[in-house]
Design a protein that fits this description.
Helix content: 40-55%
CATH superfamily of the domain at 75-369: Alkaline Phosphatase, subunit A
CATH topology of the domain at 75-369: Alkaline Phosphatase, subunit A
Number of helices: 31
Low-confidence stretches: 1-38, 40-44, 467-472
Bound molecules: zinc ion
Strand content: 5-15%
Radius of gyration: 30 Å
Structural class: alpha/beta
Distance between the termini: 78 Å
Length: 743
């Protein structure tokens, strides 16, 4: 169901000449505003006045612009701050905050006081930022199981087409390249930890590391035109700010925010250091907020209250945007896309659902921008009702089994549901909401609908699949409000587990399964707890129970597949991988795991087929590529293996395994010179018995016996092998050679 790229509207781009004209026009107005100083100039003409004049000129030249000036060659830096709730930032009125860099940016640029995200979930929200579309259109409804279709046009793609250098520096797994947001980026750095084959929702890295990666790239690329996305994830759970922030804040969330603020500042400082700040648009935006206990919601994704919807949102471009500008009208994250294009004088693609905020910055428009809002997380994870709503600045309506209506001017905390009292307002908003859903739904149902074939494949594996509920139906689904205690208990159990109180956590998870057997997270967390404790059979049983109860839960099948491999149930692992692929044929873990299982079962052609599919999704996954090349090499496809190793060498020039395996593979093809060269390099990086052995053998074959024996001896003294045939063979060879030379 690939969608065609939206056609560009025939809107003429603002030319450089027009931009110049505009900036020329602005000057007289600027003078007028400072006319008192001009009067002084007329009265006195002495040296002190000259000083005043010089100061005045500086003021004119350096003072922040008061108008918007479009410019087509600006660099763009978008910094997204994950899980940063607006009212926990200094410039949004929180006096315990330590966010000097965000405050300064807001002060020097344009701050939107009232910005709402369209879904309080990382992947859906970022998809809206980068496509300018609502979730019913881009179809990303939750983290983990959705993929942004290649047919959508992203901001990065537009800038890449324009010839910009495009790069993204990612803080955590929910926006990993496999979920499709990498479209249009020349570089998408989402390596969170070294040596991580299976990334999980725990895969993340600190702002400091994200920044370091950005810095490295930037120092090599700042002279080109660039479009950059920096993603800082730190304010997300668990709240564990590094020192000294840990000690300095009583609330660790505030500590994470302060730490993140520091690295926002580092980006700005780097742009300044390299003198590109004046030619760069900086956009800083939160992807969603955090419950922090409001409405009993600890994190985000379950409800649609302001705590998780309102985010900090600011624009800064020293020469092109006004400073000290605060805008109170409600705006949305889908407006980032058209605003950036508008400021750069580019045409806004037809079909973009956001609106340019430039008229707001120019003071020409003030009306609140109505927003559609949703969360499908309750449905995806718990089989509770998905929530959808509409917020028009003052009034918010949430469509749920028990509908909600709030007057946010009278009741900013959203404590008083006035749905019953204001049925007329509610039904008007409900109609508007239905209209938005109809207008913005991209044809297909938002729920993953299984094809008949997929359904049959799953049923053949023994799973019973319910018929999928259609969009908008709430019957049979619990209202998340009524289930908040289940969610709360889960969070408590997670906290216990994190603090090392596993037994208590285990009991709570078990109780959760009894109380709410339709909630996948209980099984997932309990299974994960068992896996960590090496209780493989218990983990297997829990995942098995979970997949029986919830056959459409990919994470549960994933857990069962991995555990099955660990306890040697290979066929079952393969079945689970197939079950996952029936639900999502791009699911990396299933492809990669199936490849390895087939390899263990010595069905290498199948192994290669699955590993190839996995490589297509994660082309830079080092451990996967090493596996893939190893399987190719042992299947008589040495040439292809050598290709993979050579590609790996470019990205990881210091990994001894690549040279070692490459050396062995060359040895097997008879290219002894290349074999020797690579094995020597491997030994230089890290000496291993395996490399010593293979180097010795290769040298012997080229007739360099003396050198060969030296390495074979090194093999004998370093190998952990017991009395193996290989070892005996080498011992005999060395003894024989010594006898010959002594003679
Ligand atoms: Zn997020």
């Amino acid at each position: 169901m690939a969608k065609k790229k939206r056609k560009k509207r025939k809107k003429k781009a603002v030319t450089a000449a027009q931009v110049k004209k505009e900036s020329f026009k602005e000057k007289p107005e600027a003078k007028e505003k400072t006319s008192p100083k001009r009067q002084i100039k007329l009265v006195l003409f002495t040296i002190p006045v000259l000083v005043v004049l010089v100061g005045f000129l500086f003021f004119i030249l350096l003072r922040p612009k008061s108008k918007v000036q479009r410019a087509e060659n600006l660099n763009v830096v978008i910094i997204t701050l994950d899980t940063l709730r607006a009212d926990r930032v200094g410039c949004y009125g929180y006096d315990k905050a330590r966010t000097p860099r965000l405050d300064e940016l807001a002060e020097m640029g344009v701050k939107f006081e009232n910005a709402v995200c369209q879904a309080p979930l990382t992947l859906p929200s970022h998809a809206s930022i980068f496509t300018g579309l609502y979730p019913p259109s881009h179809q990303i409804r939750d983290n983990g199981a959705y993929y942004l279709d290649q047919g959508f046009q992203t901001l990065a793609e537009i800038f890449k087409e324009k010839g910009y250098n495009t790069a993204a520096f990612i803080g955590a797994f929910p926006v990993d390249s496999r979920f499709g947001l990498d479209q249009g980026f020349d570089l998408y750095d989402d390596e969170f930890k070294e040596e991580e084959k299976f990334k999980t929702f725990d895969s993340e890295r600190r702002a400091g590391d994200v920044y370091k990666s950005f810095q490295e790239w930037f120092l090599e690329n700042f002279q080109s035109q660039f479009f950059v996305w920096v993603h800082y994830y730190d304010p997300h759970l668990p709240y564990e700010p590094p020192s000294p922030y840990r000690e300095q804040f009583s609330d660790p969330y505030d500590g994470e925010v302060a730490y993140t603020d520091f690295y926002v500042g580092e980006v700005i400082d780097l742009l300044e250091d390299k003198n590109v700040i004046d030619n760069t648009l900086v956009v800083v935006v939160g992807d969603h907020g955090e419950g922090l206990g409001d409405h009993k919601e600890i994190d985000h994704g379950l409800f649609l209250y302001n705590s998780t919807l309102k985010v900090p949102f600011m624009f800064y471009a020293s020469q092109n945007l006004p400073a000290h500008k605060v805008i109170t009208s409600q705006v949305r994250l889908i407006d980032v896309f058209p605003t950036v294009l508008d400021l750069l004088g580019m045409s806004i693609s037809e079909g973009v659902q956001g609106e340019s905020l430039i008229p707001y910055m120019e003071g020409k428009r003030k009306a609140d921008l109505v927003s559609y809002i949703e969360t499908f997380h309750p449905r995806e994870m718990f089989r509770w009702a998905a929530l959808r709503g509409i917020v028009d600045g003052r009034m918010k309506y949430i469509d749920a089994p028990k509908p909600e209506l709030y007057d946010m001017e009278m009741d900013p905390e959203e404590d008083h549901n006035i749905y019953q009292e204001e049925r007329l307002v509610a039904s008007r908003l409900k109609r508007d909401l239905d209209g938005l859903i109809e207008k913005y739904s991209s044809g297909t149902s938002s729920r993953r609908v299984l094809s008949t074939e997929e359904r049959e494949r799953l049923m053949a594996l023994g799973y019973v699949i319910d018929s999928s509920p259609s969009e908008g139906e709430f019957s049979d689904f619990a209202d998340p409000k009524d289930k908040i205690d289940v969610w709360y208990t889960l969070q408590v159990a997670r906290g216990l587990q994190r603090r090392g109180e596993e037994e208590k956590a285990e009991k709570l998870y078990q109780k959760g399964i009894e109380l709410d057997p339709d909630c996948s997270l209980h099984y997932l967390f309990l299974g994960g707890l068992y896996l960590k404790a090496d209780k493989l059979q218990e983990a297997y049983d829990v995942f098995k129970m979970g997949t029986r109860a919830l056959p459409e839960s990919i994470p549960l099948h994933d857990g069962l597949a991995k555990t099955s491999v660990q306890i040697g149930k290979y066929q079952e692992a393969l079945n689970e991988c197939e079950a996952i692929l029936a639900l999502n044929d791009r699911y990396f873990n299933a492809l990669s795991l199936a490849g390895l299982v087939y390899n263990r079962l010595e069905e290498n052609e199948k192994a290669i087929e699955y590993l190839q599919r996995a490589v297509r999704i994660e082309p830079e996954n080092k451990l996967l590529l090493l596996d893939y090349a190893r399987v190719l090499a042992t299947s008589g496809r040495a040439e292809e293996a050598i290709d993979v190793y050579n590609r790996l060498k470019v990205h990881y020039p210091k990994d001894f395994r690549i040279y070692q395996n490459l050396g062995i593979t060359y040895g097997n093809t008879g290219d002894l010179d290349k074999s020797i060269e690579n094995l020597k390099k491997a030994i230089e990086l890290r000496p291993t018995a395996l490399a010593f052995f293979n180097l010795g053998v290769a040298l012997e074959k080229t007739g360099r016996i003396e050198e060969a024996v030296r390495y074979l001896k090194a093999y004998l003294s370093s190998t952990p092998e017991g009395d193996t045939a290989r070892k005996r063979m080498v011992q005999e060879k060395v003894a024989q050679w010594e006898k010959e030379t002594n003679r």
